[in-house]
Structures are given as structure tokens and as C-alpha cells.
Amino acid sequence: MFIQRAPFLVFSANLRLNNSMKRLKDVNWNHLYSFYEVARAQSLKDGAQRLGVASPTISAQLKKLEEVLEMQLFHRSSKGLSLTVEGQQVFDRTKGIFEEGSKLLELFTDEVVGGYPVTIGIEDTVSFDLATEFASQYWDMYAEFGTVNTIRQSEHAVIVDNLIKGNIDWAISVRPSSRKAIVSEEIGSFDLVFCCAKELWDRFKSFDAVLENIPFVESSWDKRLNRAIMQSLRKNGIVPREKIFSDHLDYVTKLCERGRCVMFLPKNPLKEYPDLKFFEMDEPIRMRLYALWKKEDEGLVSIRKLKDLVQTQLTVLPNRYQDIELQIDASDVDDIHLEDTED
Predict the structure, then answer these.
(1) How many other β-carbons are positioned within 10 Å of the β-carbon of residue 96?
(2) Which residues does 312 contact at the CB level (< 8 Å), separation at least 6?
(3) Are residues 80 and 207 located together in one domain of the fold?
(4) By the 8 A CB rule, do 266 and 260 touch?
(5) Same domain assignment for residues 54 and 172
(6) Fewest 10 Å CB contacts: which of 39, 41, 142, 195?
(7) d(CA 324, CA 144)
(8) Furthest-apart CA pair in the chain: how many Å?
(9) Do 163 and 190 share a domain, yes or no?
(10) Radius of gyration (Cα) for the chain, nearest Å?
């Protein structure tokens, strides 16, 4: 019985495949792009404005697309448009297509297109606080072109691998890359300082006594950093009696504020720790922070803005750093959604 039905099953499968291919060829990519912009704006009117096309024209294009795909893409009501489950699936797929299209235009033309998000890989090390500060400043530089995501990276080698594979757009690391395909630019240097609770500090006669007698925190993931710290301590004749290890900076910071341990942190001029006393050796432990990106991506506005920010060396804040209006402007929020702030 199975042998007799097999030719029919193969024929049916081929027929379905041929029908699917025909439907794909019938898709008008202008209609698909119109769908993408309307779905992104969640508004027919706003999508039409972005496209520079009349709303009735866009509406007709969306209906034709739904007919070709044989599915409803939007729920239509007096409140406007919202994506159906199938519409959300189509949007998720087309999003990647048109974001890559924007990058393609920027690479091979002089146009600044934008419209795509950026993903930053940040090395998971003691400099994480300064690295995320730099990334947040980058948001302000890039806000008018798209959004910015961050991903923790376990080590430098993982960062380089993800850059090469295109899994991240650029990265922050404590080491420059030796790969010719990767550009490395220093974004700033910082000193590592020791710290403990102010009340604990007042009980000791010297900083070396604090370091020798109170549990000292080491990183459980950054062996390279641990070696640099211990070399500095040994050079000053200091050997901590007890060490603790942790992956969680917030955890050891809480312990440190309560006088339970001594830790080290990067000196961040933009952040205050009112409960901690900072101290350092005569010879500071200095580390550098680098931005890394693929050389072939330098035509993208995402990398152009990064290079602009690199020039500040973490010393100058963007002009609108504390300005709430920046995101409202960048998101092109309609006035009907905003409170009147005029007196």
C-alpha cells in the first residue's frame, strides 16, 4: 500500500513547493517594504509619511500583499492598526532584510541611511562600569539612527570571533586586537583603585594593614587582571591573609560598603560611592579600554558615530546627555502623545 501511494505523496509535495515558489515570486517587494515601515511605525499615516506616499496607496499595497501571502497581517480598528500573529512573524523576518539593506546602502554610497539597531559586545571585566558608560554615551550619538543593544562577552577571544562572524557590530575590550580585519582604538585609560568602607578605614593605621587583614576580593573570571593586582601588592610587600572570589560586582560592592571586604574598582570620574574610601599605591595600576570594529564596516553610520565618540576619550559628555527631550525627538513622538510643558 505504501509503495502505491508514494508517487502521489511525492507529487503532492512537489505541487506544494511549486505553489510556494510561485507565491514568493508574486510578492511585490515594494509592498513588502511598505508593510515593514507601517509595522515599524504601528501607524498607516506615519508609515506613509516615512515612505512619502499617500495613505490610500499604502493601504491598497498592504491589501495586495495580504492577498498574495493569503494571510491577514493587521488588525484594523477605529484605534488604528496592530499586527496579527502572522503579521508579527512576517515583520520579524522582514526587519532583518531591510536593516541589512540600509547597511548595504551606507557601505556603497555616501548616504547616511540608519534605521537599524546596533549590538555592542562588552568584555565582562572590572572595566564594565566604564564600558557601559561609554556605550550609554554612544546611544546619544546614534539615537537618531536606531537603537543600541549590549551583550556580555566572556573574554577578548570571544569578542573577536563574534565581530568576524557579524554577531556584534562593535565591541569594548581591555585589549586591542591583533587581527588585521579588526580596528582597535583606545577610548580611554583608567586607574584601578582599592576601596573599603569609610568606617573600616578609620579603624586602621595604614592602607597596607587593611589589605593584609581584611578579606580581599579577586575576580573569578579575569585571571589576567588578578595577576596585575597581585604583582602590584607583592611589589609593595603586601600579602592579603584571606581572599574571596566572585563573578558579581554588585554583591562584593555591598559587602565592601558594609566593611566585610576590600575590593578594587576602576576610577570613574562620573560616578560617586559615598560609603567607600578609595586609596591606591604610589605607582598606580593603569589599564586601557579599546573600541573594536571590523575595518570593512567603517562606511556605516554606526561606526562613523563610534569614531566621533572615540575622540572624546571618555572626558567630554555629549551635549544632550541629561536631556529627556533627545529620545522624544529621536523617536519622532507625535505631539498628541505628549503633555503640554508650556507655562
Answers:
(1) 10
(2) 137
(3) no
(4) no
(5) no
(6) 41
(7) 14
(8) 94
(9) yes
(10) 28
Single-letter amino acid code for the residue at 5: R
Residue 215 DSSP class: P
**139 and 219: one domain?**
yes
CA angle 298, 302, 306 (to 5 degrees): 80
Q: The C-alpha cell of 282 is what?
A: 604610589
pTM exceeding 0.85: no
CA distance 189 to 155: 19
Question: Could you give the CA distance from residue 107 to residue 90 in angstroms, rounded to a whole number?
Answer: 26
At residue 113 the predicted structure's pLDDT band, cuts being 50, 70 and 90, is confident
Query: Are 27 and 62 contacting, i.e. CB atoms less than 8 angstroms apart?
Result: no
Place of cell 556605516: 300
**How many CB atoms neighbour CB 252 within 10 A?**
23
Phi, psi of 107 (to 5 degrees): -70, -35
Query: For 142, what's the count of Cα atoms within 13 Å in the CB-facing half-sphere?
Result: 26
Number of folded domains in the chain?
2
d(CA 82, CA 42): 6
Relative to beta strand 263-266, strand 182-197 is antiparallel
In one-letter notation, the amino acid at residue 266 is: P
Q: Which residue, of 108, 125, 157, is where some domain finishes?
A: 108
- Domain holding 162, by residue range, is 117-322
How far is 159 from 122, CA to CA, in rounded Å?
Answer: 8
Q: Is the pLDDT of residue 309 over 60?
A: yes
**142-159 residue pLDDT tens:** 999 999 999 999 889 999
- C-alpha 167/C-alpha 163 separation (Å) is 6
